[in-house]
Design a protein that fits this description.
The protein has about 250 residues and is an alpha/beta fold. It has one domain (about 5-250): Rossmann fold (3-Layer(aba) Sandwich), CATH 3.40.50.300. Strands 3-4-2-5-1-6-7-8 form an eight-stranded mixed β-sheet, with helices on both faces. The two termini are about 15 Å apart. The chain has eleven helices and eight strands. The chain is globular and about 50 Å long. The structure holds adenosine-5'-triphosphate and magnesium ion.
Length: about 250
């Protein structure tokens, strides 16, 4: 079985997609066969890797709902060697409603990954901003979860909320996910107070839960707009460096 990691979090725009795409690319460029599953109907990860959601006939939606039996049709190459993508598309929004009545509605992704993950050593799932059925599927499918926390919103309340959600999911559906990392993101030295907040979180939850941080770097949105991971778009940038350190950090867990 591949190592499965969900990238989740409580707030919109906290950097889930940026972390999912660039961590996946950093791990893949080291020779780990990596599969990134875009589980967000916004399809930001799909766009960030240069794929066009509207053009893709087979996406995670068709696979999860069993509408496309040939799974390979929804696995596309990316600009990073050894990183493949299962794209998303806007119609994934409908899955929440279409699956609502099904008894195994939270286990669709898990069942899909069991078939898809052969040949990969790592699977990373980019989750949407809410805790609906799609995120529930990701948490059921992935034993590990990472949550970026936006530098300017770093707060105990956000972390506590996340812990509660993971606990509730585990209670309902059997032990599935453990949160193995909070990733302080968009860290900017000029903004006071971020260091103190990280320290508070470390004191409360343990230092080992807080992973290496990603600095604020304008190259990240530029890389996403160009459809390339940061390691390829700007290999000498601060962000490329930070993602290498994060990949080291995740590799030894
Ligand atoms: N460290 C960073 N430095 C600069 N910009 C960043 C950084 N991290 C993320 N961004 C930018 O912030 C925006 C939001 O990031 P991202 O899309 O990764 O967040 P998200 O949590 O996936 O958002 P959504 O709720 O839309 O899924 C994007 O434009 C992204 O390029
Ligand atoms: Mg996102």
């Amino acid at each position: 079985m591949a190592r499965r990691i969900a990238v989740t979090g409580l707030k919109g725009g906290c950097g889930r997609t940026t972390v999912a795409v660039n961590l996946a690319a950093a791990l893949a460029l080291r020779g780990n066969k990596t599969l990134l599953v875009d589980l967000d109907p916004q399809a930001s990860a799909t766009l960030s890797l240069g794929a066009r959601p509207g053009r893709q006939e087979a996406t995670v939606y068709e696979l999860a709902l069993g509408l496309e039996k040939n799974l390979a049709r929804a696995v596309v190459p990316t600009p990073a060697r050894d990183l493949h993508l299962v794209p998303s598309a806007l119609r994934l929004f409908g899955a929440e409603l279409e699956l609502a009545e099904e008894p195994d509605r939270a286990k669709k992704l898990s069942a899909l990954l069991a078939k898809l993950e052969e040949g990969y050593s790592i699977v990373i799932v980019d989750c949407p901003a809410n805790f609906g059925l799609l995120t529930l599927n990701a948490l059921c499918a992935c034993p590990e979860a990472l949550a970026p926390i936006h530098g300017s919103y770093l707060s105990m309340a956000a972390v506590e909320g996340l812990m509660e959600v993971v606990e509730a999911v585990n209670g309902e559906l059997g032990p599935t996910t453990s949160l193995m990392g909070l990733i302080p993101n968009m860290i900017d030295k000029r903004m006071g107070g971020q260091g103190a907040l990280i320290k508070k979180i470390e004191e409360k939850y343990g230092k080992s839960l807080v992973r290496s941080r990603i600095r604020l770097d304008a190259k990240l949105p530029e890389a996403a707009a160009a459809g390339k991971p940061i390691q390829i778009f700007a290999p000498k940038s601060n962000a490329a460096y930070d993602f290498e350190i994060l990949a080291d950090d995740i590799s030894v867990l």
